[in-house]
Design a protein that fits this description.
Length: 198
């Protein structure tokens, strides 16, 4: 039996990209345009900082380290979705810039993807180029330090699915946030009020 070459494997990218596009949900372009920035002042926790550790600048808290809760809130609340992420789905980041507060909860950097397909779009997965070009072409966004993405082959044959747009996503996010009272919201509330995110 012949061992497939790298070129053989890349011939499947179009069909794989279509499977991901047809089964995943991306932020609505109109919603991304209305919010045009990170939804929460958070970034991914790391080995040095745990969940809910504050990020400080000159002794003043400017953000918080968090797990994937605030990206999930951003995705769901901005589109008027209720409940929590269904089992079998993951909130994926388009760029691996989760240590950047401007990117971690930016809607253009998020996608809701079935867990069995997530490795295709993760870090150096074969389909990251499709999502990154989509974010650049449709949302006009990339992380500040990232190079401009390159349009992948057969990109134009892909049809993406978008979450529904609601009339006032910023108000919806504020209302959902203010209706919660837990450790995460207690720490974020004064920061968000100070930087006019609430």
């Amino acid at each position: 039996m012949r061992i497939p070459t790298v070129e053989d494997l890349t011939t499947h990218h179009e069909s794989l990209a279509n499977v991901v596009a047809n089964t995943s949900w991306l932020p609505n372009p109109a919603t991304v345009k209305m919010i045009h920035g990170a939804v929460f002042p958070t970034r991914r926790l790391n080995r040095s900082h745990g969940r809910f550790d504050l990020i400080q600048e000159n002794g003043v808290p400017i953000g918080m380290f968090d797990d994937n809760a605030t990206p999930e809130w951003a995705m769901f609340w901005a589109h008027g979705l209720t409940g929590t992420r269904p089992k079998g789905w993951t909130i994926a980041h388009v760029w691996p810039t989760s240590d950047d507060m401007a990117s971690f909860t930016h809607l253009a950097n998020l996608a809701m993807i079935p867990e069995p397909l997530a490795s295709l779009t993760d870090k150096v997965g074969p389909l990251v180029a499709y999502l990154r070009w989509h974010a650049w072409e449709v949302y006009g966004w990339k992380p500040t330090a990232a190079s401009t993405p390159i349009k992948p082959p057969v990109y134009d044959s892909i049809s993406w699915r978008y979450l529904p747009h609601i009339d006032d996503p910023k108000t919806a996010i504020r209302q959902r946030f203010c209706n919660l009272s837990n450790q995460r919201t207690s720490l974020l509330r004064p920061i968000m009020e100070r930087i006019n995110m609430l």
